[in-house]
Amino acid sequence: MPKVTFIQSDGSAQTVEIALGWSVMEGAVRNLVPGIDADCGGACACATCHVHVDPAWVAALPAKSDMEEAMLDFAQELKPTSRLSCQLRVTPEMDGLVVRVPDSQH
Amino acid sequence: MPEQIVIVGAGQAGVQAVQTLRAEGFAGAIAMIGDEAYPPYQRPPLSKAYLLGSFARERLFLKPDAFYQEAGCDLILNASVSAIDRTAKTLALRDGRVLPYDKLLLATGTRVRKLSCPGADLPGVQYLRDIADVDALQPLFRSGARMAVVGGGYIGLEVAAVGAKRGLDVAVFETADRLMARAVSPVVSDFYAAEHAKAGVKLNLNSVAEEFEGKGKVETIMAGGKKSMADIVVVGIGVVPNDMLARESGLPCQDGIIVDRNAMTADPAIFAAGDCTRHHGREGVEIRLECVQNAIDQAKHAALAMLGRPKTYSEVPWFWSDQYDLKLQIAGLARQSDQTVLRGDPASRKFAVFHLRDDVVAAVEAVNAAPEYMIGKKLIADRVAVTAERLADMSVPMKQMAA
User: Fold this and answer.
1) Which of B285, B175, B191, B288 is nearest to B242 (CA)?
2) What value of ipTM does the predicted structure carry?
3) Chain B contacts of A22, Cβ < 8 Å?
4) Is the dihedral of CA B149, B155, B159, B162 positive or negative?
5) Which of A15, B260, B263, B396 could cysteine-pair with A5, CB 3.0–4.6 Å?
6) Domains held by chain B: number
7) Which residue of A has its CA nearest to B71?
8) First to last CA, chain A
9) What residue numbers bound the domain in which A20 lies?
10) Among the three residues B235, B253, B284, which one is the final residue of a domain in this structure?
11) Phi-psi bin for B25: left (phi > 0), alpha (psi -120 to 50), beta?
12) For the segment B290-340, what is each residue's pLDDT rounded down to a tens digit?
């Protein structure tokens, strides 16, 4: 299974395995990664699963949908590398992905 | 500080309470009692991705088993409570166990409202509330099967959309003169009616289900004076709160367990959160909400209050529904008397309806329109005054709406 690393604002990191086809958010929730609340359960309806993707990985990820783009627009600590982790479906190519959890989500 | 907290109901609110209690430093014992076989799971996908078959069951669970272990939460499943002894502060389970509590949280949710017309108990007349309901429905979802959906609200229409997608011959029967009448404005109802019709769903408004017939299982539905064939019937006509336990223990209830703005019942040791409560909304009106938002937020408030740190509950309610490729997002609570403003063109399949009350934004219904929803929610929370003209003006970006 692909591995994804979540880095918290205090620098602590957690690397978890996520099944293919699951979302990065689901992997975080399943492994109790702090700061990924995902209130809506991945319906792209709440923006509580916001992450900053490591710059090296941004280009490798599929493009944002209009809905994701619009929801993100209102997330706190928005950066060009921002994504909603519920919209990132894990593929074999995403093995090694690194994302950061924004400080504002705690 | 309480030492033992017991949560009745293992759903969204229950899980949130466990999470908040531990995050806030509660170090005592927590037990959570659920009447299903499964640990707490998400209900919203049941009528959407899970019914469609594109979502494995294990993805429904709100938390992994490790969460309950790490939180030291004793998860008691397949169990139900028969009585609360408020004097002794104990709960009696139907299997004979007795659990003591210092603080008790009732997060018992709702159950489906059932049809009572002739034939309503025939096999094949199904409801959709839990995993078992969907698992029973799945094998009947075969291409070409005739499905009658009773109720044109969120659940009924989500089931209709999934059915249409899976090639079923779908007919919806709704008693009101428009779809989702309780939740959305007429323009949104009309838009969804057109979308369902486009997908081949036959809509029957002003149609009360009167009778079902069949030999051994349902074969026909009589609604609005018209008889149609049906291989499957799915009923989605609302829910009723599970307030019996509270009622039997003498707590005031009225279509829901009555709680104050700190989620406390009339008994200071007993709290309630989620769909099962009737509470004062942020506008001071008594309401009962059926949504994830209320389950999460009210449970947080209940947890804080149980620990002696009450915080007034006044969050803006929000809801969503997925039908076809349409995302309906609603924030705030609309009233009949509101002034409504249409922003955008429904023909573009991207628009919103704002509700103004006393000149401030009170609610928004957004279809494929996240900026309208997200900013709208903020305008509602901050009680911002915006004119109808400005809201309707597409040349004013939502981000500048408050300016």
Assistant:
1) B288
2) 0.88
3) 59
4) positive
5) A15
6) 3
7) A32
8) 28
9) 3-105
10) B235
11) left
12) 999 999 999 999 999 999 999 999 999 999 999 999 999 999 999 999 999
CATH number at residue A86: 3.10.20.30
pLDDT top residue among A47 and A59: A59
Judgement on whether residues B193 and B179 belong to the same structural domain of the protein: yes
Substitution target from B158, B292, B316 for chain A, most A beta carbons within 10 A: B292
A98 token code pair: 């690194």
Q: Are residues B54 and B123 in the same domain?
A: no
Task: Answer yes or no: do B296 and A39 touch at CB < 8 A.
Answer: yes
Q: Is the domain of B165 the same as that of B67?
A: no
- Strands (DSSP E) found in chain A: 3-7, 13-17, 50-53, 82-84, 97-100
Question: Do residues B106 and B54 make contact, with C-beta atoms less than 8 angstroms apart?
Answer: no
What is the length of chain B?
A: 403
Which residues in chain B have Cβ-Cβ distances shorter than 8 Å to A31?
Answer: 64
* Domain region containing B396: 325-400
Tell me if B63 and A29 make a contact (CB, 8 A cut-off). yes
Q: Select the residue from B22, B59, B349 to test the A interface by mutation, using most A Cβ atoms within 10 A.
A: B59
Backbone angles phi, psi at B388, to 5 degrees: -60, -40
- The answer to whether B370 contacts A67, with C-beta atoms less than 8 Å apart, is yes
Q: Average pLDDT of A41-66?
A: 88
Residue B225 falls within a domain, yes or no? yes
Residue A59 identity: A
Query: What integer pLDDT is reported at residue B361 of this predicted model?
Result: 97
* SS3 call for B171: strand
Q: Is B328 on the interface with A (CB under 8 A)?
A: no
State the smallest CA–CA distance between residue A77 and chain B in angstroms.
16
pTM of the model as a whole: 0.94
Alpha-helical segments (H) within B215-272: 244-248
CA A15 from chain center: how many Å? Answer: 13
| Same domain for B230 and B271 | no
Q: Find the CATH number of the domain harbouring B10.
A: 3.50.50.60
**Residue B371: its chain A contacts at CB < 8 A?**
70, 73-74
Residues B330-376: pLDDT tens digits?
A: 999 999 999 999 999 999 999 999 999 999 999 999 999 999 998 99
> Is A34 part of the contact surface with chain B (CB cutoff 8 Å)?
no
Structural domains counted in chain A = 1
Query: What CA–CA distance (Å, rounded) separates A100 from A82?
Result: 9
Dihedrals phi, psi of A2, to nearest 5 degrees:
-60, 145
Task: Indicate yes or no: CB of B292 within 8 angstroms of CB of A26.
Answer: no
Tell whether B354 and B394 lie within a shared domain: yes
